[in-house]
Amino acid sequence: MLRTLGKRQKGGGTEPSAPPLSSKPPPDPSRNFEKPPDIPRSIEPVRRAPEPPRVYQNTRSSVITQPSEPARRAPDPPSTFRKPQASETIRPAEPTRRSEVPRQKQNDSLPPDFGRIVWITDPEDGFRAAQIIDLSKSGFTLTLLNTKETVTRKYEEVFSSEDDPFKSVEDNCALMHLNEATLLNNCRLRYKNGKIYSYVANILISINPYQTIDGFYSTQKIKEYRGKSLGQKEPHIYAIADKSYREMRRHKKPQSIIVSGESGAGKTESQKSVLRYLCENWGAEAGPIQQRLLETNPILEAFGNAKTLRNNNSSRFGKFVQIHFGEKGNVAGGYVSHYLLETSRICRQASGERNYHIFYQLIAGTSPELHNYLALEQPHCFNYLKNGFVGFFTHPNSNSSTKIPKSRWSDSRFSQDSMVDDFLDFQRLENALKLSGLKEKEIMFIWTTIAGVLHLGNIEFEENIGDSKGGCKVSGGSEGAVEQAARLLGLETMELKMGLCARIMQTKGGARGTLIRVPLKSQEASAGRDALSKAIYTKLFDWLVSRINQSIPFEKSTHFIGVLDVAGFEFYAVNSFEQFCINFCNEKLQNFFNERILKEEQALYEKEGLNVRKIEFVDNQDCIELFEMKSKGLFDLLDEEARLPTPSFKNFTKRAHEENRKHFRLDTPRKSKVKSHREMRDDEGLLIRHYAGSVCYETKHFVEKNDDQLHNSLQILIEQSTSSLLVSLFPSSSDSIKSGNKLKSQSVGSKFKSQLSVLLKKLESTRTHFVRCIKPNNQMIPWQFDGSAILSQLQCAGMTSVLKLMQDGFPSRTSFGDLYSSYQRNLPPKLARLDSRLFAKCLFRALGLDQHDFQFGLTKVFFRAGKFAEFDQMMRQDPEHMMSLINKVNDWLVKSRWRQAQYAVWSVIKLKNKIAYRNAQVTKLQSMTRGYLARQKFSRQIAIYRKACNLLRNSKEIEKILSHLNENSRAKWTSSAHLTIKDLEKLVSHVKLASVDQIEKAENAYEHYVKRVDSMILDLRRQQKSDEVEELERKRREEEEKERVMKEEKERLKRMEEQKARIQKEHEAQLVEQIKKAAKEKEENEKSAQQEKLDAIVPNRLADSDGIAVVMSPESGSSSGNSTLKGKYDLAHWKYAELRDAINHSMDINLLVACEEEFRRRLRIYNEWKSRNASKRDEPAPARAPLSVYDASGSSRQCQQRYFKYTFDAGAQLEFSFSGKTGMWYAHFSGEHIHRQITIRPSQMPQLMIAGRDDLQMCELTLRETGLEQKPGAEITEEEFENQWKMAGGN
User: Fold this and answer.
1) Is 261 annotated as a binding residue?
2) Is 535 annotated as contributing to ligand binding?
3) How far apart, in whole angstroms, are the C-alpha atoms of residue 964 and residue 959?
4) Which pLDDT tens digit goes with each residue over 496-523?
5) In terms of pTM, does the model score above 0.90?
6) Sign of CA dihedral 322, 327, 331, 335
7) Which member of 193, 346, 713, 1185 has the lowest number of beta carbons within 10 Å of its beta carbon?
8) 937 contact partners, CB below 8 Å, separation of at least 6
9) Which residues are within 8 A (CB) of 1268 and not within 5 positions of it... i.e. 6 or more apart?
10) Where is it localised (predicted)?
11) Binding residue per annotation — 263?
12) Residue 267 annotated as part of some ligand binding site
């Protein structure tokens, strides 16, 4: 027991030891989960139920010291200190009533939760398992389970673990401890067991295996998931597809499946799986449309996917594929929308990346005749291919490498990938194009156009020495490339040369103006060539998508299911305009996710009156506004720069920083943690803090990449082509608006922004399902789990916030009316009369559903996560199943009415007993009536007797008047008054014994005594009045003197009250100012912490994946809310056991106070951590104090006994909730620290706690920190507290 606390206690005794705890077998050592060296595995610490979460304000503990004395280190612990023994890890169980259950003594030298297994942050694995061995100044001291290394972690870096860390669950909401660590561990366990899917309620998490899993997407697997509810089978992408289809049929509303994740996370394969599932199940009657829908993927992947550093089959455009369904639920057609094709990749690629697949497929897969006709060569012979990776891809088990002639190889080494095979993919592409309805002429047009783009890239320019205007010409080595490009694109060779080396300008004047030919320099000609290549490829891609949509019409469509697949969040060592647009798109989708899952969900719970705790999350709306703001937004600034005569990327960057100065999301490159980024000038880059981390963009090519306009001369050149299909891709220049020498068109950024707005409006009109794809490692190694990278992706996707919301929330719901209407047509008349809400209640009772699994709102019924099977069981539309449910409802009603009949019989029996009771009461009434008649017979005698008794009682007034007379008057009247009273007593006795004939004589005597008494009372009152006049005169003189004295005292008190009020007002103003200052500091600290976190995510992952040099930030101080203690003693390095022993044994008063302050500070922070990491099955522990008590700060004072009471909301588990039930909290403070406390809740036994015995459960704040002194009416007397203590069972 703490000695200082024990002195304050009024009694106590020795406390017996706790009984031994049950043993738990150790885990399997083969799972790399070892026990610590000094702790036997047969003993497990008892985990108490966590306390409700509270709000703390950071405080600075202080100790008593002389101002002039310098700080010194605390003396060494006394010789009685000893190391904690492993056998002392036993802790007592929580009794129901602390004052009545004998407590057992625990080892004071052991910290709370000693030996508990937890998860701690780790830069490589995300989290690692460790065991608590001590409670340090700013966190925990722990031992790693696998290496037995001792480490320290801050409180916010430690998370609770499951009781069995090797048990995995399909739905992460089923975890008992819901935090980032348990979520990551569950994903790790499932991934190592070959299970790549898991749920967070109805959101699917998919981790890419980077390997084909046999039978995992087979036709048999498709059949297994058809018609199955979420949770009935293992998590799978097919379950999400089936759920979306059934909800479309049930609610008659379009559905959308948003597949999101980083590049290489498996989004494209997930989208293909959804399309295949829907087409194979409900597309049999669609004929060729079904096959065309499935064959859209080879076409889109060939022309829109490419190899990047992080993904061999990365989608470089966004697509929203809609599958339309008819009235009967069968596939009726489809539609493909595409967004932001990455055009810069056509002309240049980063080292190690490839151009679009179609270029390599064309070289690898064409027949020799077609290969010669297209004049194709090895990839490294083309300028548009040679700067990147020039090898081919093959499947691991295919022989494609032998089918590609060696004359086409640039690299003898073939890269293997389970999804990409250049030779086989070209054969599939040809079949897909034919199946989509393209004719041979159109297919040949595609091949010639693609080959023409390759040859265009080989055209190079040199200065024309003979041109006085400084123009250029085609170099001698490029003549062959010009001829091949002109032939394949249907152009004249000379026209192509002239169009590339010069541009035509139209001057004003006349009907059409004057055409002027302006020679171009080599750099300008190269830029025009690249612009022409990108324009041709982009128009070809748009035409292909249009032809696909023509082949899958949807005239008979009623609803659709759309699958969205866009490029995931990207970051590289060098990020340009493509990453800028892609990451903006992901910001918008993340915001949509926040709105749909977090904001709208919680708003619905509040509207329907559901008691679901509020979940905080990071809103990225400010980042979206940074891009979209009018005049100040980045897109508007970029467009405004492009309209200038000489646009400059430096001017754009400078203006972006100036217009958005002090914006949290925007900063200069020198604030980046990547070393190469810090070398950039402020006008050369933008550091944007996205939801997934801070990305530094190099703005060097922003202006030119945002310009999607083609020179007028190149437009005219294309119009002269003999290929009608190529001409049809470009609008006529005569119909276009010309601006200078260019055709005026929308910029790339503006076009993408408008497309994205249309997409989001379409998504908002649908019911949304989410699939979060996760990239397991950056090296694309099969079945390798990189915990740190995966944790970063889960955090950025907002899965931890969703996990907490779905654990308390209800992801499935339907209105009472919809539920009733789905059964109404099959209901018999006796059930059809039921109210829709009553019918839902009957249905749930009939199905035997647990009341915890659903909740009734005002207009809807809600189901918890993991109860989709029960929900779907009710909402299924097949008549046979509905009739079985209706029969169950009918049976339940029959049973309910039978119980009502039983109640009616019981009521009749009760009525019979009541009639018998009333008969007995009638007999009693008869007896009372006979008594009444007897009293009427003697009524006259009784009346005179009562009058005489009343007169005797009234005569007592004579004695009362006598008592108010002065002594002389009292002596004069006493004898006659006493004689009168005695005569009255004789009269009463006479009337009582008189016979009937003596009644008249008694009445006359009574009248005589009435007059006698009245006369005497009148005389006495005259005498009393005379005495009172004399007394009043005496008192008047005394009152005048007293009033004079009171007036002087009142004036003195008034002056004191005014002074006190002025001091109190000043004190309150200081408190308000302190609170505002603390709130501002807290907001700034949180903002700084968020900025530091975002700035570190991307650099750390770049360092891990690409080996980029990162600037390490200095270690910040502890964020646990306590700065270094200032004073005589430095207790930062003292262990928990040393503090306890110093408190128990030290004779130094100053050291004692300092140790107690430090001990309680650590205990307060620990209890806050324990509340945050509570298990969802734990019951609320005894409240240490009401939530509103934790709101102030202060320092220690003299030891003074004070008592307080406080009313709190007894039913609320959260600070912002309110249950309507009130409880009382009583506290006894000895000096600054609590000594005893009582917690009284409705319908519960009082909880009594005493310092030194119940420290872990008691309020750990000082009296000043609680703020109770400033709360009106909170302080009570010692007597009131002691009465409550005894009533609650205390000694």
Assistant:
1) yes
2) no
3) 9
4) 998 899 888 766 555 555 777 888 888 8
5) no
6) negative
7) 193
8) none
9) 1189, 1204, 1206, 1227, 1274, 1275
10) Cytoplasm
11) yes
12) yes
